[in-house]
Amino acid sequence: MTTVAADTDAPARATPSTGVRPYRALARVAARSAVAYPLSFVLGMAGVLLQLLAMLSIWAVLLGSGTSVGGFSWPQMKAYLLIAYVTGSLMSFGDWEMAARIRDGMVAVDLTRPVDYQRARFAETLGVAVVEVAFALAVCAVVLAVTGPVPVPPPGQAALFAVSALLVLPLRFTTVYLTALLCFWTQNIFGVSLARGAITNLFSGALVPLTLLPGWLQAIAAVLPFAGMTFTPATIYLGQATGSDAWLLIGVQAVWTVALWWGARLAWRSAVRQLTVHGG
Amino acid sequence: MRTRSGPRQTGLRRGVRLYRRSLGAHLRSTLEYEADFWILVAGSALTQLVGLAFLGAVFSRVPHVNGWTFAEVVLIYSVVVLSDAVGPLLFEGVWRLPWLVNKGELDYKLVRPYPVVLQVLSDDVGINGLGNLVTGGAMFGWALWRVDVAWTPALVVGGLGLFASGMAVKLSISLATNSSAFWLQSPHSIFAYAVHQIGDLARYPVSVYTFGVRLVLVVGLPFAFVGFFPASAVLGAGGGDAVRAGVGPTWLGWLTPLVAAYCVAVAALIFRSGLRRYESAGN
Amino acid sequence: MAFIEADGLTKRFRRPVKDPGLRGALKHLVVRRFADHVAVDGVDLRVEAGEAVAYVGPNGAGKSTTVKLLAGILVPTAGQVRVGGVVPHRQRVANARQIGVLFGQRTQLWWDLPVRESLALLRDLYDVDKVTYREQLERFDDVLGLGELLPVVARKLSLGQRMRADLAAALLHRPRVVYLDEPTIGLDIAVKDRVRAFLRELRADGTTLILTTHDLGDIEDVCQRIVIIDQGRIIYDGPLAGVKDQFARHRSMHLHLADPVPLDTVAAAVGGAQVAAGATPGEFTVRFDRFAVTAGQVIAAVSAVSEVRDLRIDEPAIEDVVRKVYAGELRLVPAP
Questions:
Q1: How far apart are CA C136 and CA C131, in angstroms?
Q2: Do B39 and A191 count as a contact with CB atoms less than 8 A apart?
Q3: C285 three-state secondary structure
Q4: Which residues of B touch C154 (CB under 8 A)?
Q5: CA atoms within 13 Å, Cβ hemisphere of A222
Q6: Within-domain flag for B34
Q7: In this structure, are residues C208 and C51 in contact, taking their beta carbons and an 8 Å threshold?
Q8: Min Cα–Cα distance to chain B from A207, Å
Q9: Is residue B1 part of a domain?
Q10: How far apart are CA A26 and CA B172, in angstroms?
């Protein structure tokens, strides 16, 4: 770090770093602290893991004998549930960590650091996501070994799936980040977290494929950003949306991601004003 | 000279009255934050409604799961949700136990003339329980109305007794797991919470799970006795075509009070043993 | 039979010795090593009803541990303890009714409630009748100024305010014995005075008082007896006045003389006492044994040499004695 000389042009507040290095460092630190406490890490993932177990068991009973429901056979539903599980594993800790930092007043320290707050949190999320995905994929491997394989899409479709999958994390990040910002205004993150979790669970298709929901719920899901977190990549994987349909869905994902990212920046500015003017 | 204390209520009445006073005090301080109150109620209600939406979506496509109809599955589900209403509303303090142990905050509780475990349990009120109470209660009422059961007064009383015992099972497990704090170093309830989430598996009929999971839910952490077994027993006794897949004989559910007594005893033992460790090891 | 009886009271803590990190934790599952720490080592203590005992010692000496043993919060490793005929850790509830406890570092108030509510809860927990409750609150208001604190939520109290409220909480039910563990820690002098005044009132009431503190000013007016503990063992147990008389015999008198008299002249005038030069010419410090020579005699002797413009006599603090004891410079033998 350069020393601060008696520079009359020195900025009053730290300007964000333009390089990637600080963010890479943050990502690395976040990943390492996730691995440093393996027991806590696994326990934190318990919720989403148990939901996978419940869903697999229920659908195995319903579809095991070769029937199909709503266009899903057992191998297809299994693929869907595993994708829902992997996407659901992301940001298992995001809510609480961010809210805890805000509540503890550590935010004041963060504000003096020369990194953009939002990008910094995203970098940390990326770091932890690597560990979360690794763990989730390992679980998937076990499930597949025990219960048999799932259909694999052809290369073109797989590429589309990859694109869609990459957009999941930014989308998840922005929604969690936005709700965490509410901590600046409310004391209790628990209620907000519950609400966000419930809404996300339902409208992302993580709990049940959106096409199985009644029409009015599907209509609501269509105007919300959550579908892009689970349903979109899963439906592309299963080949239920192809070609231009798939590209349209990916486009919707991208638009939501960008809109929420900038929405979060606006919310952040408002939150900082709340903090510095009202004392948080 | 020192005046003597006034006439004392003894035993149970005093115990209950002081418990209520403690809960009331915490409830009043929670109500200070009105926005948070409604957010918690809404958040917890939403969570249960989403679960109901899932069940509704499934049952709109299939007539039954493992022989269980929609109303019957909702019966199990709602009882578990109600146990998550009673817990937070009356016994939420248990989740603060790890923090209390880690920070040495049990010291003052040890010098008061009131059982430490009751002081701990009444040390908090979880308003999310209210959201669960409303949604769970509505689901429970609906399910009772819709299931194919020939209700007799005896069956109603027996059934309520079973469901109440099931709640005792759930609460004992919470107390036991949070008491692990006496041996672990962490001030967090993360282990107890993970076990609690295992209990969420028992919202669905336990018969859908493989043998290993069933073993855990019946023997290891008897969450199956919170909703599944009591519901099986009541539905079985109420007549109707028994096509429901069960786990063992249907009368097993009538043993729920025994299981509850066992769980309460074990939890109390673990807590007492933990407290003794606190007194011998300091903190 | 004394009110508090402790015989050979011992508390040994076993701490696991682990290498750091996950590897250390795993290793400890197999190779178990412990280190013993004896916090309280064979303490014998007899306190009569109504006595006020100061329990003094350096950090880690075992003061708080002893208090916890007496209060029944900790179970002794060896030895016996009875308070008011009751074994504290065995008859917890019976013991609870007769004791009041204040841990200076922690509050027993309910964090999110106004002080009034906390006191009301405690009133119910201890079954204090309405009349006594009102009397106590009035009394606390007189001495501690509790009235202004009643409507304030505990977490908004300053340290001094919190201590006052905690004192009220500890004494609401008029216990026969009160254990005060560092009750003035971190307080400014104004609050300390209030607390000490309150403790004097308690003494006048006949409440038995066990007071652990670092601040020896706490005990000067309140306690007649001082127990000094170091490394878990009692190294002195006797009257406070006796300690000062016995071991704080010396006084220091600071003199400011009108004429610039050399050191030797002053020393010669004073005879047996030690004389040291002060910062500026004409300033001297005379250190004398007050049982050998009186202050008046010293002044008279110096006046013969020069006019005394100003003088100041240092009263020895008990701090000095105890500091010396900690440092091992002084071995105290309790008066028979």
A1: 9
A2: yes
A3: strand
A4: none
A5: 9
A6: yes
A7: yes
A8: 7
A9: no
A10: 42
The verdict on A62 touching B (C-beta cutoff 8 Å) is yes
When scoring A59, A93, A194 by the number of chain B Cβ atoms within 10 A, the one with the most, hence best to mutate, is A194
CA angle A152, A157, A160 (to 5 degrees): 125
Q: What is the pLDDT of residues C188-234, one digit of tens each?
A: 888 888 888 888 888 888 999 999 987 777 777 788 899 988 888 88
Domain count, chain B: 1
b/e B15-47 (16+ beta carbons within 10 angstroms → b): eeebbebbbebbeebbeebeebbebbbbbbbbb
* Contact status, residue C225 vs residue C51, Cβ threshold 8 Å: yes
Other beta carbons within 10 Å of A169: 20
Q: Which two tokens stand for residue B227?
A: 């909703």
Residue type, A239: G
Q: Which of B112-116, C181-185, C278-282 has the lowest mean pLDDT?
A: C278-282
B243/A contact by beta carbon, under 8 A: no
Across chain B, the runs of DSSP E, i.e. the strands, are: none
- At residue A1, the pLDDT reads 40
Distance CA A249, CA A157 (A): 13
- Residue of chain C with shortest Cα separation from B115: C93
Chain A environment of B50 (Cβ under 8 Å) = 198-199, 201-202, 207
Whether A255 contacts chain B with CB within 8 A: no
Tell me how far CA of residue C84 lies from CA of A82, C94, C99, C101, C177, in angstroms: 67, 10, 10, 15, 9
For C142-151, the pLDDT digits (tens) are 988 999 999 9
Length of chain B: 283
Residue B2 lies in a domain: no
pLDDT digits (tens, 9 = 90+) for C117-169: 999 999 999 999 999 999 999 999 998 899 999 999 998 999 999 999 999 99
Domain that holds residue B237: 11-281
* Any domain includes B3: no
Distances (CA, A) of C284 to A1, C249, C266, C313: 56, 20, 8, 12
CA distance A185 to chain B (A): 10
| Domains detected in chain C | 4-245 (3.40.50.300), 249-315 (3.30.2130.10)
Tokens representing B91? 């016994």
